[in-house]
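seq as requested:
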Amino acid sequence: MKWISVVLTLVVTTHYIDLCAGILGNHFWKIQRLVHERRVNDLRGILPGESVCELFITQPLDHFDRLSQEAGETFKQRLFVNDQFYEAHKGPVFLYIQGEGTLSPVSAKSGFPAELAKTVGALIVAAEHRFYGASINDDGLKLDSLRHLSSQQALADLAEVHSFISQRYNLSQDHPWVSFGGSYAGALSAWFRVKYPHLVIGALASSAPVRALTNFEGYNDVVAASLESSIVGGTEECMTQIQQAFIQIDALLKLGNHTLLEGYFSSCEPVIDPLDQLTFVSNLASIIQGLVQYNNEVPGLDIDGICGIMQVTSDPLRNLASLNTQIMKNSNISCVNNSYAEMVKMIGNTTVDRNAEGPGMRQWIWQTCTQFGYYQTCDAKTNCPFSRLIDLPSQTKLCSDFFSISPQDIPKFVSFTNEYYGGDTPHGNKIIFSNGSIDPWHKLGVLTDLNPSEQAVFIKGTAHCNDLRSSNSKDPPQLTAARKKISSIIMDWLKEASVSEVI
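struct tokens:
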């Protein structure tokens, strides 16, 4: 029997985490940074750095335009390769796909894939997404260049990575690959299996929003339900307190009493302009959205912690102000920047900094405008606990302001994405769709088996991409059981592939 070489593609375990909540919510990005820093600190001193090397592969800027390729239009895509566990000539290869942020070498060292790599002697290859981190040309953030940023181009990049790694490590085309991914890259993982079935024999899609949706009202519906869920320390009173706080905020803004709010919530500047008011309420909402999406990732600031703070007094506004103060303390800031103009300046910046960490906001907004939507709104017909100022027009405004994309065109782009990939009923096989009940993104995922080989793993009480993290003694039993089930399915795929190879 020949040893099979396997590539597991995944995302979102230790680097900056994918998929933001409201575009205007700066606190959400701060929470992502806190989660990242905590994960890196937990791993510091445990994982040997010398086992990871950095590589760059030359990719066509446009895989589907031969004239562009003939003209030599390319970019360099960054990879990190970890050979710590690799058993040459017989070990599998795990390919880690990065989503909409900077790739860290830690991504090739830890999490569920690393645990599996240690078990099977795998080589781990982490691939950065085009136009993020260091995988971008000097003019990559300019509008004319952004037309080359799409999920279709990213999948074609993976096909080239497959070829590059196969040649570098002397792997034949007969060696089966398996893709893993989480969040946006979880969708990429599923789509890679659907669109490139000759390259991957199976896929794990964790917390994957495979259904694109312009007005994603369901995100905040799940946030509300999670805040009431007793399994994670939520209560009905907690959700009511948050809802009442935002009702008071909307009323005060309507009355023009912004001075009280500026003092309560430590705003760096007045929130008189309607767009600054929108940024203000979005920042406050993003605190709760971020802490729910990454529940149990920020010590002391999880759903249980939110509800503890929101029930200290009978004044919802004062309680929300206390939560805001705690986030400011954790983020080491003295006031909150609620300036829409400053946010616009940051997103409008087209200067590339390859050493910058974190998510690429300009790039991700482009992707939402041109492919996915994913706008988390508080339109009137929902049970959203946040401000009603956070509506669809406010979320799509940036598409027209920065990219001259009419908001009326976005639903057409979203519809094409679903037609191209199949939405939440992709036609494929050997795909695992894993989701947590607390994660708001599960609303756009696959929650029940589509067929015997497209299986759903739904994990009660868990948040965004929890199954892709390293196992922990504090993990709830349902999460441990889910990882075991996922591992078992993958191992069955590999056994089937090895039998087929012998035959």
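The two ends are 9 Å apart (CA to CA).
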